[in-house]
Design goal:
The complex is a heterodimer of chains A (about 400) and B (about 475). Chain A has about 400 residues and is of the alpha+beta class. Chain A contains ten helices and 20 strands. Chain B is about 35% helix and about 20% strand. The chains are: A alpha+beta (about 400), B alpha/beta (about 475).
Chain lengths: ~400, ~475
Amino acid sequence: MTDIDVAIVGGGLTGCASAYYLAQAGARVMLLERGQINQGASGQNAGSLHFQLEHRLIQNIDADVRELEFYVGLARIAIGQWRRIDDELGCDTQMSMGGGLMVAETPDQIDLLERKSRIEQSQGLDVRMLDAEEARSMAPYLSDCVRAALYCASEGHCNPRLLTPAYARKAAESGASIVTGAAVVAVQRTADGWQLEFDRDGEGSETVRAEAVLNAAGAGAPAVAAMARLHVPLFPVALTMNVTEKLAPRVGHLVQHVGRKLSLKQAHDGNLLIGGGWAAVLRQRAGRWTDGRSPELKLESVLGNLRAAADVVPLVRSLRLLRSWTGTTAITADQLPVLGEIAEAPGYFVAAGGSGFTYGPTYARLMSERILMGRTSYPIEPFSPARFGALNAFVG
Amino acid sequence: MRTDFAIVGAGPAGMAAAEAAADYGVHVTLIDEQPTPGGQFLRQPPVGWKVAGWLDGAAYRDGKRLLGRVSADRRPEWIMQTSVAGIFVAEEGSNDDGRFTLLLEAGGDGGTRRLEAGAVLIAAGCFDLPVVFPGWNLPGVMATGGIQAFVKSQQFVPGKRFLFAGSHPLQLVVADQILAAGGSVAGVLFSQSRRRALELLKHPAVVLRASDKLAETAALLRRLSKAGVPVRFGQTVLQANGENKLESVTTVPVGPDGRFDRAAVEDIDCDRLGVCFGFLSSSELARQAGVACRWEPSRGGWIAEHDDTMASSVAGIYVAGETTGVAGSDVAALEGRIAGLAAAVELGRLDAERARSLMRNPRRRLRQSNRFAGLLAALSWPGHTLFDQLMTDEATLCKCEEVKVDTLRHHLEQNPGMTTASAVKLLSRVGMGLCQGRYCHFALTRLMAGHLGIAEDGIGGFTARFPAKPLAIDSLIRSED
């Protein structure tokens, strides 16, 4: 006898959205979050909705064409879902799809933009090349160093501070039980599913029995999987984000760079959010990564990020830096997400990694379909944990 | 730039540390936001000014002596009108010059530069405790410490008719300074009952150890009474009124149980309200550098933890003065001296055994001074009931982002399980503005503790981020190019 249908581990975007879609479909759901809702990467990232292939994904563009095609295909699903998100959640998440520009400064970069655009167009993503003049007439805030840009009309941003809590509220309204301050400490297979033991803010432990487990713990997913003696090959990555003081509306697009680490947008409140994948330092204890404190900020990353921003959008120089912060996300070896059931552990599902803000709602919807119906409305096989081969074949 | 020992803050703690360390051959660099040393306590007149009778009182005697000695000392290097935007700890095993990199920003667009240091002292002082009540964001409502900053160094009276409301004895000092500088004072309101104030003042430790301070207080009260300034106990501000600027203050009696008697409110006309219920430690730089802090609301909020050599939880970073808890300039100078000696030991300039014997006397005096500071803190602390009653729904809690108390209550109700300040910051923008949360974190902590019925320390602070204060991007990029 199980108590519930699905136990979700992790109160980030994917976990909370999954809780909502599962509960809405009638499943009995409990979400366990060791800290607070939205306290990890879901709330710390810069809120880009980037449907173009990002800088990090196109470093080996020719080798990865097939994977990238699958990934771009997912963008179409995600765009449709984002367009409806405020209606779906019944609140203003400050979602804006004002379009996105990925800029190039050199001939090599322009070439990369063109190759990238062909993959994207082949999968039906609406992107088009702009020359320098077109780019600046669309985005007068761009500097003269911009020689070309790839424009995607559906790109934009959403407020990461608001989205996940909105999903958590809707999940609770739909009957899901959202338990914060609940650290999962043990996960065991039972005759008819899984038993999870969790500590509630150090005040004794409780157990829940579920037919299925969804590991949506982000960078914590490998450690959560290990409790069930499973391997999930995700690796923590520490990143840097920056925010400036507010200014009147000037930057209407999501701005990215094809050859430098940069994402820049003007948030609903007027501040510029500047990120793009600059490293921070993961903390270690006794030679192992620890996730107790946020990663250590590197001054060189702040400088590199601000220089890239100021080169592309000169008005950045006239502003004050309000805050730089760090967060931890997780990537796989091929930078794509891990979505699906672990074949060797029936009923154990994983949804983590891979542009988790832009695609979090989509991962959640597809995983809820997979868990409840055994199939999905868009193929997720390319993202299956099975692509990592025999990792879990020897797990006892 | 490189130094042995970087001292952030040239107030009593920083100056005493500089003197102690320099005595043993340590190369010391003092950094301060002001043009001249002394900190808030010994705020000097602007360069080139002569202010007659500047800080004449007995309370300033020791501090002025220290200031005189250290100002004339040629050994330390001074970097004034400069703030520290961040402290970065070198990665283990790296070949950097120093263990610490301080990013300095010179005022007036002087650009940024880096200072490498072998050890750091954070003695960043404190600031007035911001208290949320309806109208606290009206122009004309000021921190009493802010009013004092004007009148102390320049004899400048920033207003016409002043009312003071609070619970801290500094109110008496500033009212007296305003009178002396030619201003008018409508009254001084203490939220505590007269009986409670007297009980504490009669405490043997105060009578024996601080008789000079008691005599000073009595003299202040005499002068105010002679000038016809009412000093009332069991009274406080309920709200500040006015269109666009302060015109009057509604006051309310406070019962012995701390409850307001809203049936007996009274309006007092004034164009300035000084508010002084205590001080908060400037611990954000310490927290940003990873120094462990603990929550003690009556001693300055998040205060830095340390051992008996003033070493913080981060090896090589020392803390002294109000950063370790608001306790006044005597404690600050003693802590600074101990930290300076400890840094000299760590930097290999002073033998540990010798340092222990040198620390004996300041430690003994520190125990006495701390006892007095503890009583002063207990006397001055208005209690949570007062904050809770002042923080009504219509009051603005976060001035930078204009977040009202009822908006925050609404968020807390809509999002059960949200129990940390950081989570509420993310959802509501409270603390995300130019003040970096300095002016709202105390009130938010109080609001959440009251609303959720949980302990304040579990709510946690806002994570302290780089830069400690907003930093001009152009100046950062240019200087580093």
